[in-house]
Design a protein that fits this description.
The protein is α/β, with parallel strands linked by helices and 226 residues long. The protein has eight helices and six strands.
Amino acid sequence: MQTSPQADRRCGFVHRQDRRPVAATAERLPPLENRLRPFQSLEQERGLGESTGRVEPETAKKNGRTARPSYGIIDSQSVKTQYDSEERGIDGGKKVKGRKRHIVVDVLGNLLHVQVHAANLHDTIGACGVLRRTAEKHPSLEAFSGDAGYRGTAVRFVDEVLGLTLHISEKIKDGFAVLPKRWVVERTFARLGSFRRLAKDVEILTATAENMIRIAMLKLTLAKCA
């Protein structure tokens, strides 16, 4: 089946007669450093991710809650990465070679903290640094919630070091069931998965991977304020 050049252009293809050498196309693109410089300046000079957000309090007020969070929900997601990315590992439980995204959200799904590290680091160990940083950024937090993967080290760390409580959600029944409060962080991961840049971790640096999640959350949080 043959198609006309006009139909090929409408479908996004280039007709054989109009093809150009790859080298000629690449010459028209700006240098790579010029394309990366805007985002690098946003990360380094403006300190993207270092300061707390200012949009979340407006979302809380709109839903009739206090501006400062008092309860955090933690979870992780293992994703595949590129071959030359820093901090790579194998998550034996999920059979994924790459990185692990750790996020903490409040009861409304607003992002409190994000940290990306190697996937071979167990949840109960990797959560210690994540929860410590979250408690430092949000002193109003009184307790956290996590699944069964955070039992043991993380529970003791939160109790002895942070002086808070980490509630462990247990299964209600065998099979699929919606757990109270746990569904909020699962919904956040589902919404982040709709962003093509986050479908797979294609960033070389973990700091850039974390900032991509923050940028996506900015769009989601602003949509709640509309």
